[in-house]
Every structure is written in structure tokens, then in C-alpha cells.
Amino acid sequence: MIQSLRKKFIGATMLSLLLVLLVILGAVNLVSFRKTVADADLILRLLSDNHGAFPKQMNPAMEGGPNNPREQRDNRPMGRVAFSPETPYESRFFWVTVDQTGSTVSADMANIAAVDAQTAEQYAQTVLSRGKGSGFLEHYRYLVSEQDNGIRIIFLDCGRSLEGFQTTLLASLGVAAAALGGVFVLLLFLSGRIVKPMAESYEKQRQFITDAGHEIKTPLTIIGADADLLELELGENEWLTDVRRQTQRLTDLTRDLIYLSRMDEEKPAVQFVEFPLSDVVEETAQSFLALARQQERTIKLSIQPMLSLTGSEKDIRQLVSILLDNALKYSVPQSEIHLSLEKGPKSIRLCVCNAIQQPISREQLGRLFDRFYRVDGSRNSSTGGYGLGLAIASGIVAAHRGKIRAESPQGHTLMITASFPAGNGATRN
Asked: Residue 107 — φ and ψ, nearest 5°?
């Protein structure tokens, strides 16, 4: 249990850190990518406004126009922003003009060396087929604009910018991976110290239950033996019968507590072997048929034959007994209890379903497998239960690498399903 808690703590911490890093790095890289796209679009608009070429005058005062930038700042057209004088020499671009039929009218590859006329025409046809006004084609950012003699498609080489963005992205991912690895290593060392006080407290509690249980066994045995001797001398009477009944109840409770304590150990000493699961379930269920008739219930069995499981046959028998005993105690008289065993694609499912008198809320369903929890808040002992049966069932299923859950699909029925990995999935490591 402590190891499971430690793993959950490490997992939750790593997941939280991963989500934070993803949000931060995602935001940073998204802003960087949008800045790259925005800069490219501004250059493309400038080229489009100047008929596919940079203005002859390029200086930082181009906001609003080259003649009187201050006066025309408020009326500057789109794309008239401050550019570096080196922008025309740093930018690699080409454009293609096509008519309404899609035929190439003119093209300009003077400002790029990596693209010839034929490739430029292919790029233009690809852009036209997309039907978008702007976007990326490979590492080229393009802009489609209407011209007097047709449609001009301007391509700007963004290879260096995209490579820089990719380098930043990969570097940030590398840093994030290194940070996650470092935190994981630290957690491996520190988590042990963090859960150590809890582990010590839990171990003392478990040891106390085990020791107290063994100490209680002796006086209970003596009380039972004395009651038998008194019955031989005095004969049967209601007081001795009550003493023996309560002694047996306390003995059963002590046994269950010791069993749960042993199941909480990190490596319980249980031998797992392959056994015929179908036969074991059917044999165990058959022993409850007569008891069910006495209590005016009926047990219906639906067991798929020839199923086997690698695990503890004794524990599985106890699991079936707990589920059927629970169904008999809390089911409605004159009702049917359904027990089914079947193999699915990935698991073997053992299910017990019975009718109940009062609906069970979702919160109550989630607590059915807690120790000492009973739906009946009055703690009425008429049913003979202590609230430990389903907790033991949950421990048995967990020891077999399975899952158990409780459902109330119709509100007036309780269905408890235990699922075990099919094949050799139930073997212990």
C-alpha cells in the first residue's frame, strides 16, 4: 500500500509538472511561430502593394510614407511599417502572375536562386488548387492578390525563420525532458522520505492488529471451551448459547482483521498456480444453494466452462463465498441472485447481482469496499456482518491483478463485478 501511495505521489507530481511545462512551452513557441508568420505576412503585403518589389527607399522612417512619415502615420496603408534597410537584401522571394484561366502570364525569380520558372509555375498551380488567400507551401509563405492583369501569387522564403523556430522548439522540448528527468530522479529519492512517517505509522498499525488478533485468539478459545464444559454440566440454555454465538462472532472478526493485515503486506506469501476457475466457482456456489432455499432466495448460475486462472484457489473460493454471502444477507426475500462467469476479449468477469430493498447512492457504491463500512448506518448486527467482507474481496481481486466494482444500474439491484486478466495476466511478478 505504501509503495502504491509512493507511486501515485510521483505520478501526480510528474503529471502536474508535465502539464505546466506544456502550457508554458506551448505558449512561448506559439507566440514565436505567430511572430514569424506575422513578419512574413507584412513583407508579403508590402511586396503586393508595390507590384511584387520592395520600394526603392527602405528606411526606418517608412511608417506612413517616405516623404512625410509623421503626417501620414495615421493614414498608412496595411503593411506600411518600419523595416530595416537590409530587408530587401535579406528576403528571398518570387512571384507568379496567372490569368483567369490559370495560365501563367509572367513570373519573377530574380530574387531567389533555389526556384526555377517551371517549379514556380507548379507552386502557383498548387496554391490555386487550394483556394486559400495565404498559407505555407513547404517552407514558403505565400499571398494571393488580385491584379489588373490577373492574379499574382507572391512566395517568401521563410526557411531560415522556420529553422530557427524548429531549433527553439526542439531545444525547449529537450530542456523540458531534462527537467522532467531531473525531477523524477529527485522524487525517487525524496518520496521515500516524504512517505516514511506515514509508512512507519501504517506499519505500526498493521503490526498492532496482527499482534492483538493473535493475543485475542487465546482467551476466545478458552471462553469457547469453558462454554462447552458448562453446557455439558448445566445443559443447553439461552445464556450459554448467546456466549458461544458472540464468541464465534468475535473469532470471525479477529480472523478477518488478521487476514486483511496480511494482505496489506508488500509481498504476501501466497502461492499462485493455475487451477480450473469454472469448476471452483461452480463448486463454491453449489454449497450456497441449500442456504438460499432456507432464506427464500434462488441462486441462478451462468458459468462458462473450461476457464482457468493463475492465482490462489483458496482465495478465489473465499471471494465467491463473500460475494454470495453478501448477496444473501442484503437481497430481497423471494428474489433471485444471479452469478455469472464469462471470458471477454481481455478479462475474465465474475459477476454477482441481487435485488436490494433500498436504493444505493453513488457515494455509497464508492465506499462499499471500505473497511467496516455498511450501508446500514445503524450498524444493525442482525445480518451478522461487520463491513469487512467486501474489503477482503477487494484485496483478493487486487492481489490477482484484477479490478472490482459495484454498480446499481436500475436503482433496486446491486451488481458486483470482479475482472481478472485473461490468460497468464493474473500471474504475479
From this structure: -155, 155
Q: How far apart are CA 276 and CA 314, in angstroms?
A: 12
64 φ/ψ angles, rounded to the nearest 5 degrees: 95, -25
Give the whole-angstrom CA distance, residue 401 versus residue 421.
7
Given this model, what pLDDT does residue 59 score? Answer: 52
pLDDT in tens, 26-80: 999 999 999 999 999 999 999 988 888 888 765 554 444 444 443 343 344 444 4
For the residues of 246-298, what is the DSSP string, one character each?
A: HHHHHHHHHHHHHHHHHHTSSS-----EEEEHHHHHHHHHHTTHHHHHHTT-E
In 3-state terms, what secondary structure has residue 336? strand
The residues near 27 (Cβ < 8 Å, ≥ 6 apart) are none
Neighbours of 171 (CB within 10 A): 10
pLDDT-above-90 percentage for the chain: 31
Give one DSSP letter per residue of 236-256, joined into a string: --HHHHHHHHHHHHHHHHHHH
pLDDT at position 362: 80
pLDDT band with cut points at 50, 70 and 90 for residue 136 = very high
State the maximum Cα–Cα separation within the chain, in Å, rounded to a whole number: 126
Distance CA 136, CA 142 (A): 6
In whole angstroms, how far apart are CA 344 and each of 277, 289, 303, 317, 347?
A: 15, 27, 13, 21, 5
Task: State how far the alpha carbon of 15 is from the alpha carbons of 184, 194, 244, in Å.
Answer: 11, 18, 55
Helices and strands counted in the chain (H then E): 10, 12
Cα separation, 409 vs 362, in Å, equals: 11
Q: What angle do CA 339, 299, 365 make, to 5 degrees?
A: 50
